[in-house]
Amino acid sequence: SVFENPQTASINVAQRIANLIKKKQAINATAVLGLATGATPIGVYAELIRMHKEDGLSFKNVVTFNLDEYYPMQPNAVQSYVRFMNEHLFDHIDIDKNNVHVPDGTIKLEEIPAFCLAYEKKISDFGGLDIQILGIGRTGHIGFNEPGSAPNSGTRLVTLDDLTRRDAARDFGGKSFVPTKAITMGIGTIFKAREIILMAWNRKKASIIKKAVEGEISGEVPATYLQLSENVEFILDAPAASDL
Ligand code: GLP
Questions:
Q1: CATH of the domain at 105
Q2: How crowded is residue 106: how many other Cβ atoms within 10 Å of its Cβ?
Q3: What is the pTM of this model?
Q4: Is residue 55 a part of any domain in this protein?
């Protein structure tokens, strides 16, 4: 769907998340959310915080799994996705921090494979992701699944694309300070979510959105794999949809 602006689009996505949470509360069940970082979802988180503060929406029955984290990364670092999530959402709602999961950027290299398997297992132990929200990078990455990612890939350590590191340079004070690696859920992990919402705002995203939605399905643009799923919805503002 195409919305006039990111605000109305973000409110729409936040309402769907809130509806899921309330539906689960009514049957004493857990809502399992797959969350994303970057500028794109900030408005969704702001609206969820507003719903918590003004409408009494509770997150006590919510479990979250974030898509990715840089590697290596200390959780208290300015660029850390742990810190991002705390500042933009978790610190402002009544979620139990034990229910929050972000890939751990501090573990030893040799422990990563076991960590990634455990991350996948935890998601399935909670019954799988009810909703996964996504942004999109200019390489066509979702999470940090860069060009070359396999459609059945799981959570793993990946090497960041040069363009991704250039785009992150501002956050790190120069490209050379951007980590070369990240831990990310795989395309296969994302695909298992019962509902996938990819959001994009801004003219800057128009060409990659065109490729993702209309382009040939290929590992060269990992987001094109989303065309294969029936549970995917693209939520765009008019500028991001302008090449479609
Ligand atoms: C990073 C994140 C992605 C995000 C992308 C786009 O690479 N790992 O999950 O989708 O940036 O970021 P933004 O939303 O700031 O455009």
A1: 3.40.50.1360
A2: 13
A3: 0.97
A4: yes
